[in-house]
């Protein structure tokens, strides 16, 4: 566990350094509220672990890891506005704390800081840009046409959640200067982890305690937001089984990668198994 925490710690330190440089002070306060109020840091940790698994430059990976966390945080600000969610990670969401205008500006500011970190690497820019296109298309699709089948739900989950997970892993491989085949397999691994993560989120929204989860439960139903449990008419147990299937696809993709066995690979495998049993 110390191994994993040390990687997260490096990301956290660099996050704070980047956010400390944001001006003016009002914007700096808002972006710090968004990013430093908590979070699992799963995506940036994946970036660092993938780079380490391939023997790459971890300093570069940390820069990319911070960037993908800023992109993720920016997307959450918009999600909370769309969903009218007043709570995020146990604290007031950005719009609830500062208002809609400042929250939108904070989201833009986070994206600007993120792309400054990617700008020197063309492959990194492409990976993140593609993921943001997918994310935007997913958000837009959900607003105008909610999924009516399990297949449509899966495509939405791939775009809304899987795409940023994919980018996180691809960035780690790019930081290690990996070939296209390796980048693709790590991307597939992380995308399926992301989809499984979203499926488990849907189950937790149905079954978890709000205080333990750190955000309101029952929100999907209240907002008439498509949940796997509702769209596919599944029990929570059946939905968990679907998530486990995605986890196995992720593990298979990881097994196809030509990388030495290491602590980093062990943790990547553990993540694919953990996302389907997590309680928050």
From TrEMBL:
GO MF term set: metal ion binding; transferase activity
Superkingdom: Archaea
Keywords: Isoprene biosynthesis, Magnesium, Metal-binding, Transferase
E.C. number(s) listed in UniProt: 2.5.1.-
InterPro entries: Isoprenoid_synthase_dom_sf (IPR008949), Polyprenyl_synt (IPR000092), Polyprenyl_synt_CS (IPR033749)
PROSITE patterns per the UniProt record, alphabetical: POLYPRENYL_SYNTHASE_1, POLYPRENYL_SYNTHASE_2
Cofactor: Mg(2+)
Family, per entry: Belongs to the FPP/GGPP synthase family.
Official protein name in the record: Polyprenyl synthetase family protein
């Amino acid at each position: 566990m110390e191994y994993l925490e040390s990687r997260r710690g490096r990301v956290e330190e660099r996050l704070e350094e980047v956010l400390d440089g944001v001006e003016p002070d009002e914007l700096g306060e808002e972006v710090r509220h968004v990013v430093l109020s908590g979070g699992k840091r799963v995506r940036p940790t994946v970036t660092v672990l993938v780079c380490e698994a391939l023997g790459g430059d971890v300093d570069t990976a940390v820069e990319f890891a911070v960037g993908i966390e800023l992109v993720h945080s920016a997307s959450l600000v918009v999600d909370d506005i769309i969903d009218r969610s007043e709570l995020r990670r146990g604290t007031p969401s950005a719009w609830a704390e500062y208002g809609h205008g400042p929250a939108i500006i904070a989201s833009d500011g986070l994206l600007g800081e993120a792309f400054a970190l990617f700008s020197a690497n063309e492959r990194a820019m492409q990976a993140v840009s593609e993921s943001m296109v997918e994310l935007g298309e997913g958000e837009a699709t959900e607003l105008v046409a909610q999924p009516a089948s399990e297949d449509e739900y899966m495509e939405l989950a791939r775009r809304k959640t899987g795409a940023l997970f994919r980018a996180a892993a691809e960035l780690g491989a790019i930081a290690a200067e990996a070939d296209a085949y390796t980048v693709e397999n790590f991307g597939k691994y992380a995308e399926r982890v992301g989809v499984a993560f979203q499926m488990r989120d849907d189950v937790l929204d149905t079954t978890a305690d709000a205080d333990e989860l750190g955000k309101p439960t029952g929100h999907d139903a209240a907002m008439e937001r498509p949940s796997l449990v509702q769209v596919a008419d599944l029990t929570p147990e059946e939905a968990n089984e679907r998530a486990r299937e995605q986890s196995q696809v992720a593990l298979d993709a990881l097994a196809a990668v030509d990388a030495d066995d290491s602590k980093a690979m062990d943790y990547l495998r553990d993540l694919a198994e953990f996302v389907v049993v997590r309680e928050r």
